[in-house]
Amino acid sequence: MKRRNPLLSGPYLIWTAAFIIIPLLMIVYYGLTDSTGAFTWSNVAQMGTPERMKALVLSLILSLFATAVCLIMAYPLALILTNMKVGATGFIVTIFIIPMWMNSLLRILAWQTLLERNGVINQILGFLHLPKLYLINTPYAIALGMIYDFLPFMLLPIYNALEKIDQNVVNAAYDLGANKFQTFWKVIFPLTIPGVISGITMVFVPALTTFVISDFLGGSKVLLIGNVIEQQFTQVGNWNVGSGLSLVLMIFILISMAVMQHYDNGDAEGIVL
Amino acid sequence: MSTKLIDLQHITKSFDGQMVLDDLNLYIRENEFLTLLGPSGCGKTTTLRILGGFETPDTGRVIFDGEDITGLAPNKRQLNTVFQKYALFTHMTIAENIAFGLRIRKKPESYIKDKISYALKLVNLDGYENRMPDSLSGGQQQRIAIARAIVNEPKVLLLDEPLGALDLKLRQDMQYELIRLKNELGITFIYVTHDQEEALTMSDTIVVMNQGYIQQIGTPEDIYNEPENAFVADFIGDSNILNGIMLQDKLVLMQGVKFACVDTGFGVNKPVDVVIRPEDLELTAVPADAEEDSEEYQRAVRRVTKFNHGFLTGTVSHLIFKGVHYEMEVQSGGFEWLVHSTRMFPVGTKVLMSVDPYNIQIMNKPASEDEEAVGVEDI
What we know:
Chain A has about 270 residues and is mainly alpha-helical. Chain A has a single domain (about 65-235, about 250-270), classed as MetI-like fold, CATH 1.10.3720. In chain A, about 75% of the residues lie in helices and about 0% in strands. In chain A, helix 7 crosses helix 11 and helix 10 (about 195-210) runs antiparallel to helix 13. Chain B is of the alpha+beta class and about 375 residues long. Chain B folds into two domains: about 5-230, P-loop containing nucleotide triphosphate hydrolases (Rossmann fold, 3-Layer(aba) Sandwich), CATH 3.40.50.300; about 240-365, CATH 2.40.50.140. In chain B, about 25% of the residues lie in helices and about 35% in strands. Chain B is built from ten helices and 20 strands. Chain B has a six-stranded mixed sheet, sandwiched between helices. Chain B has a five-stranded antiparallel sheet with strand order 13-12-11-14-20. The radius of gyration of chain B is 25 Å and the shape is elongated. Classes of the chains: A mainly alpha (about 270), B alpha+beta (about 375). The interface of A and B includes residues 177, 191, 267 and 268 of A.
C-alpha cells in the first residue's frame, strides 16, 4: 500500500476535535458536575421527576410511532419508484427531495397554519358546516409533523437498497418457483434490511430529540424530552441539568443504535427465515 | 433424441419499436445440448428469456411438452435458469440458496438435506453448506447457481452466458464440467453464448443467430465445415471471405485465377461469396529474387498445382506465433489473406498459395438483408 502523508488528515482531525469531540466532552463535563465544578450524579438523576419521565416516555412513543408510519409509507413507495421507468423515477424522487431543500422550520410553520384552531383545515370544515377539529397542540399533531418532516430520510435509503438489487436475483427467485409474495419476503426484503436499518436510524434519532416540531405543533401543552432539555439551556439557564438530561437521552440513542446494528449484522440468522 | 420437447412457433418480439426477434421458429429435442450463438443484440438472450417466462412474445407460441406455456408465469414452468453473473441470494448460506426452490415447494427437510449434499457433490463443492456466497470465487458461485437450479429436477436447464465472467482457464474447465453434468443428469440444456469456441466444444446442436433471425442450425461440425452464409462463416472461427464468380459447376474464379472446387448448381458466371478457412491454405515459399521462368520457380509451381487448378502469389506481411500454429497474413492482389500453418514463413517471404478443392466453400450472395437472414427451420 502507498505510504500516506498523515498531515493530509489534519484538517479533518481538527474539525472532528473542535466540533464533535470537544462539545461532547463538555456535555459530559457539565452533566456530571454541579455549579461549583464538583462531581455529582444529581443532574442525571433529575430525569427521574414524574414530569420529565412523562416527557421522555411520550418522546419515545411518538418517535417510535412516527418511525413505524414512515417505514410503512416509505417502503411501498420505494418499491413503486424502483419499478417505474427511469425518467419517471427521477421526477418523483425529485418531488420528494425538493421539500428537503426547504428549511424544516418553514415546513413545520406551514403545518401550524394548516392545523390551527382557525387554520386552513378548520376554515374548510366551517365552510362545509362541519364541527371544528381540535388539531393543534396535540400529540397527534406532533406525530404528523415528525412523519412529514422525516419521511424522505426513510424513503431514500430504502430506495437505494432496492435499486441495488440485481433484477436477475429477483428473476432467480421466480425461476425457482417463488410467487410474488414469497419473492418479496424471502429475497427482496432481506436484501433491503441495511437500507431499512439506516432509514429507521435516520428517522428515529431526530424524532426522539426534536424540540422544534413539538414547539410549533405542540405549543406549551405537550412537552417532549427535547423541549425539557431546551428549556434548561434557554429559559432556566442551568447548563448542568440540561447536559445531565442530554446524557440520559444519549444513552437511549446509543442503545437503539446498538439494537439496529445487531439486526444489520445478524440479518442472515436474525430476521430471515 | 427425437422427441420435440420445446417448440417455438412464429415468435416475434420488439422493444420500443426495435425488432429483436422476427418470426423465429425453432424446436428443441429432449436431452439435447442446444446452443444459441450470436453477437450481442442478435436476439439469443431474448429467446432464452421467452423460454424462461421473463418476456412474453408479441406474437407466436411456446409449446413445452405438448402444452402451450406462452403466457405461463416463470414460477410455474418446469425449467430453471442459470443466470449471467450467478444471481445468488447473498443474504443466505450456500445450503439455503440451494434449498430455496425445494422449500418453496414444501419438500420435507430430510429430502432437502439429501438434495443439498447430492448437488454439492455433483458440482464438486462438498462441505460448502454454511459458507456465504460472497466468500466464494466466481467459478464456485457459478457452480452453486447450477446446483441451485438442478436440485429442482427441471426438464430443461437454461444457461445465460454462465461462463462469461470467468477467466479463460476456468472457462475451459467449466465447459468439461457442464458436459459431464449434462450427461449425468440426462436433461436438456439450452445455452446462450457469444463465444463460438464454447459453442463448438459443448453443443449437440448450434443455432447461429443474427439480428433476430436464425442463420443456421446444425451440429458443430456442420456449422464449422459447411457454413450456410458469409455471416456464419465469419462468426464461427476465422475465415477468408472474398468475392468470386462461379464460372461453371466445380470451377470458381477469384482474384482473376480459376480454382477447382466441389460445389455445383450455382449456374454459370454467377457472383458468389467464397469462404476459405485459414488452416486450409497451403503456402509454398519461392525465393524472392526468382524469375517467373526460372527453374526454381517452376518447380514450386509444379508442387502447388498438384491439384491442377489455380494458385495465388503473395507476400507474408505479418507473423504471430500462436502456440499450436503460426498465424500469418499474406498480401495478394489487394486482399489480406489469413493463414494458419504449423510451418513458419518469415515476414517478406514470397509465397504461392493453393487450396484443396474440398476446402473451398461457395455461398450465394445475399440479395437483400432479408435473404441474408433466411429462417432455417430444418437441419
